[in-house]
Write a structure and sequence with these properties.
Structural class of chain B: alpha/beta
CATH architecture of the largest domain in chain B: 3-Layer(aba) Sandwich
Order of helices and strands of chain A: EHEHHHHEEHEEHEEE
Number of strands of chain B: 12
Radius of gyration of chain B: 21 Å
Strand order of the largest sheet of chain B: 2-8-7-6-5-3-4
Strand order of the largest sheet of chain A: 5-6-4-7
Largest interface: A-B, 14 and 30 residues
Number of domains of chain A: 2
Distance between the termini of chain A: 35 Å
CATH topology of the largest domain in chain B: Aspartate Aminotransferase, domain 2
Shape of chain B: globular
Number of helices of chain A: 7
Oligomer: heterodimer
Chain lengths: 217, 391
């Protein structure tokens, strides 16, 4: 089990306002499951270069902070400060600001559940709306607990939706009962995951590398 | 068998490496956190490994020219021109070797006659003096100290020169101290070498790993030095390719020609797999190399601060991935300190004396290990320092 940090690196992603999110999910919008904490944002800024966080820490240090957290989200502010040569208060403030801005989206555990559940990647073709394009439909689809990720894509289909369920029938029920029947969805093509090789930059079943000598010239 | 008669006296009398002695002690212990390694903690970047695999897949399993692959020499020439600002003709001034170690061996054998003298700076890499001895020449150490941040003092260098002095060996950034030679110092050394007609072997294997914000300057790039310098570099450290055993020598055609003569008799060429991996590293390896360098930089800052906080006086080394903290204030020799640290806290650091007598009072601690292990090692070392103080 490995902890990871998710942060948005794409400045073009359009964000949903916290207000809108809260309204449509009944007040507990961020708790997706017991392993995942979605951080609430207190403002609705676009995800642009984090000016305030940058004022707290130099850009190089800020990028280094994100890199360290990406590799191990369990690091405490004290550990981060020691590794970055910064003050604990500076790190805490920079991290809080990055969270607030939505650059750091949440902290998750990466679990290898290939042998436990069923996952599917669903290509969805849909009709764009006159105002908002695919956004409204994508947001509606994304709110289902079964949906773990959802992307707007270029190419032969519009949305790529990653779904997890207990078994094959769980995915089938989601596709037939919920997804296909949504207004605006034209067609779906479901591909089941057979094996995960790499997730969020981490190799599953990485063969161990040869040990270095304990002492070498 | 009468081994006294059978074995070479020259090699029998060669002292064993101090690092080897410490290695034998560490290898018998379990649960050790080692700061004693001398290589990156990164695996060779995947695109380089993949190029090596592809080379094998294509069936490239033959010898290459004694000069190595032309594509590799062209790549080295371009890289050296871009990074060191010295131009070498890939046709006759560059020789790929099995690591820098082989290049040093070849060069010394081509330069020295019995009785010649070679100067090198100490604390220094463990192989220099023995490799000189194997040519029946004499190696003389010029001591460096914390007063000069372990950079070679031009005054001390000049004082050590005798009529027999033929070669100066340099290694900046330095293993084991991480020190660098400031440009002004390098210029003075170059001027001394020109004046005394001394040839320079400069091992710049750690040159990409600099953290002081200054661009690396090779002595080979200074006026009048290219013709009297052999620049040694390789892939082991900055590209994390130690096991690939690939280095190279760049220098005057006359010397390279002679080195190729020995090379053709004793080695033929580095493995073609490594050479093709080297071509890929030069072509596309810079981003991964810079990422590794930045990671070492953060770890250097961390460990130096921790050492000074716990009472191990430690200068901020400008390069490589070594720190050289002093243990003098604890009243123990380097070896005693290292042995007790190993026995009581299970942390391995190499006594400074393994790198020359003037390393007494210091330890070489390599920070090319994971941050988690560095934290644990520092905690244990701080505990050890506290226990020494309380007795």
């Amino acid at each position: 089990m490995i902890f990871c940090l998710q942060f948005v690196d794409n400045v073009h992603i359009e964000k949903i306002s916290p207000k809108k999110r809260t309204q449509s999910t009944g007040g507990v919008p961020f708790l997706v499951n017991s392993f995942q904490t979605r951080l609430p944002r207190t403002s609705n800024k676009q995800i642009l270069p984090s000016t305030l966080a940058r004022a707290i820490l130099p850009r190089m240090t800020l990028e280094a902070l994100l890199k360290l957290l990406e590799e191990d989200a369990r690091l405490t502010d004290k550990q981060l400060a020691a590794r970055l040569g910064a003050d604990v208060e500076e790190v805490a403030a920079a991290r809080a600001e990055l969270e607030n801005q939505g650059r750091i989206v949440g902290y998750q555990t990466i679990v290898n559940d290939d042998s436990v559940g069923v996952a599917a990647f669903i290509e969805v073709r849909c009709t764009p709306e006159r105002e908002g394009g695919f956004n409204r439909l994508a947001e509606r689809i994304s709110r289902f607990d079964e949906v773990k990720s959802c992307y707007l894509m270029s190419g032969g289909y519009d949305l790529l939706v990653m779904v997890e369920a207990k078994d094959l029938m769980g995915v089938a029920r989601f596709v037939t009962d919920k997804l296909s029947s949504m207004e605006g969805v034209i067609s779906t093509a479901t591909h089941f995951r057979l094996k995960t090789y790499k997730l969020y930059g981490l190799m599953f079943d990485e063969p161990s590398c040869s040990e270095r000598l304990s002492v070498a010239p | 068998m009468d081994w006294n008669h059978t074995l070479s006296r020259q090699i029998t009398q060669l002292p064993r490496s101090g690092i080897r002695e410490f290695f034998d002690l560490v290898i018998g212990s379990k649960g050790i956190i080692s700061l004693g390694v001398g290589e990156p903690d990164f695996v060779t970047p995947w695109h380089v490994r993949e190029a090596a695999i592809y080379s094998l897949e294509k069936g490239h399993t033959t010898y290459t020219s004694n000069y190595g692959l032309e594509s590799l020499r062209r790549g080295i020439s371009q890289y050296v021109q871009d990074f060191f600002h010295v131009e070498y003709d890939p046709a006759c001034e560059i020789l790929p070797t099995v690591g820098v170690s082989q290049a040093i061996d070849l060069a010394l054998r081509c330069l020295l006659n019995p009785g010649d003298e070679v100067l090198y700076h100490e604390p220094g890499y463990v192989s220099y003096a023995p490799t000189v001895s194997m040519t029946y020449a004499h190696a003389t150490a010029v001591q460096t100290s914390i007063d000069d941040l372990f950079a070679l003092s031009p005054q001390k260098l000049e004082a050590a020169i005798t009529p027999k002095t033929k070669v100066l060996m340099l290694n900046f950034p330095t293993n084991p101290t991480g020190s660098i030679a400031p440009l002004e110092t390098l210029k003075k050394i170059a001027e001394i070498c020109c004046r005394h007609d001394i040839f320079v072997l400069t091992d710049e294997i750690y040159s990409e790993l600099r953290y002081d914000g200054e661009p690396h300057t090779s002595i080979a790039s200074l006026p009048g030095m290219k013709e009297r310098t052999l620049l040694l570099h390789g892939f082991s450290k900055a590209f994390a390719m130690t096991g690939m055993r690939l280095g190279y020598a760049c220098g005057p055609r006359e010397l390279i020609d002679l080195m190729v003569k020995i090379h053709s008799y004793t080695m033929i060429c580095p493995s073609i797999t490594s050479q093709e991996a080297g071509v890929e590293a030069l072509k596309n390896g810079r981003p991964a190399m810079e990422e590794m360098r930045d990671s070492y930089h953060r770890r250097r800052d961390y460990i130096v601060k921790r050492f000074n906080d716990m009472g191990l006086d430690c200068h901020l080394p400008g390069g490589a991935f070594y720190t050289f903290p002093s243990v003098k204030r604890f009243g123990l020799s380097s070896r005693e300190f290292a042995m007790r640290l190993l026995q009581e806290e299970k942390v391995a650091a190499v006594p400074g004396t393994a790198f020359g007598a003037c390393g007494e009072g210091y330890l070489r601690c390599c920070y090319a290990t994971s941050f988690d292990l560095l934290e644990q090692a520092c905690d244990k070392m701080a505990h050890f320092c506290d226990s020494l103080r309380s007795h």
